[in-house]
Amino acid sequence: EAKRRKSSVPCAYDPQMAETLAERLRIETELRDAIANDTLMPYFQPLVRLNNRTVYGFETLARWQRQDGSFVPPDVFIRTAENAGLITDLSDKLLRKACLAARNWPANLILAFNISPRQLSDQFLGNRLLRILKEVDFPPQRLSIEITESAIIRDIGETVRILDQLRAVGVRIALDDFGTGYSSLAQLAQLPLDKIKIDRQFTANFMENDKQSKIVRSVLELGRVLEISMLAEGVETDEQYQMLRAMGCYLGQGYLFGRPMPAEAVPAYLIDSQRNSENVSLAN
Ligand code: C2E
Ligand code: MG
Ligand code: MG
Ligand code: MG
């Protein structure tokens, strides 16, 4: 593939590439419309305390359904939004909707919300998030923002300033997808973190792989020492759940506990999960 491209004339017509470009432009145009018409929806995936299987909160996951009914994966449209300068608008609208939904939940539940790398280099990010919380009357103490490691390395000083500003009013900070990025342990120590989310590739592999399970153990230990709560992503099986729980991991998230769901499905989920957690406490 690479060889073929090298040997071809620089401006040779490549139908596959043209299609990709056209497709990309089409997605960008559609996304612009979708944001303008406010058709993106927040879905919510439960975050669960592993010791008693009670619900700690929900992570907001953006969902975009096209006219034809198909869903575009967020990995794709978030990147498109970042590149097209649409991410701020997308994110603000989504946060507003997510808060309005979360206001109907029991008041102890946390709302987790992803912030993309691009946004963290915006010096007004903190002000804008706090303005939205005020507008919709959502307590900052119930919001947890999730940032990824790639966001941090760009400008650690500016990132820390923004995070400190948010933390000062009670917003929690979680480091997402831990173990897959490039941040150093030194950076980890500099960041004002409340939570670390261990990437799901560790959860997926640690049952079969002794080395992986040692890594998970030592990352959990690191969290204990730094007094940061730990969450395991991608918990899909009961074995993974029991193992993580035995290791003392505080929180879990994954298909075992629940898939991302629309706001309307949350109340029924909460009733159902209460039954589950009661069963767990009876079993203990
Ligand atoms: P993330 O923040 O790490 O979110 C977790 C992803 O893992 C979600 O994918 C979720 O559906 C998926 N997941 C959860 N449990 C399991 C499991 O047990 N097994 C497997 N295989 N997957 C599981 P999703 O919804 O496709 O989102 C992908 C990524 O897109 C997110 O990763 C996040 O980085 C980004 N994203 C989603 N919504 C937003 C948003 O509103 N803003 C920003 N900036 N990024 C977002
Ligand atoms: Mg996340
Ligand atoms: Mg994650
Ligand atoms: Mg991810």
TrEMBL record:
* Parent sequence residues shown: 228 to 511 of 511
What is the source species? Ancylobacter mangrovi
GO MF annotation, one = cyclic-guanylate-specific phosphodiesterase activity
Protein name (Swiss-Prot/TrEMBL): Bifunctional diguanylate cyclase/phosphodiesterase
| Source domain of life | Bacteria
| Keywords, in A-Z order | Membrane, Transmembrane, Transmembrane helix
* The EAL domain, residue ranges: 24-274
The answer to whether keyword Transmembrane applies is yes
Residues of the signal peptide: none
